[in-house]
Amino acid sequence: MDFRIDMSVGAPVMTFEKATDIRNNIFLSLQVQRGSWFQNPEFGSRLHLLKRSKNTARSAQLAVDYAKEALRWLIDTGKAKSIDVSAERDTLQVSGRLKLLVEAVQANEARVAFTQFVEVV
Fold first, then answer.
1. How far apart, in Å, are the Cα atoms of 34 and each of 38, 42, 51, 69?
2. Domain residues for 32?
3. H or E element that contains 11
4. What pTM, to 2 d.p., does this model score?
């Protein structure tokens, strides 16, 4: 059983409620550094590589590519039917971050939206 991760309080907090969607899978896939999980070196993302990148259109495209790569297993295993990832460059408020927007359609046709910030220079 997967426990739900509550993202509404800012920092992620594990609850002891049962997860009812794939939001946990998305969160962990994007947060874990690719190659660092002992059971599956292919699990995780390469988003950590962007920490020293500038906030450019190229960095935004790389963030989208890295996120799609990290989330591909959800489609391959049948947990999701489709996953759409886009990135927004924040150049007005906080210039050192990209906003990743993930929209997934689960196997049961339920839609899940997820937002994550990627720190850049």
1. 10, 6, 15, 10
2. 3-119
3. none
4. 0.84
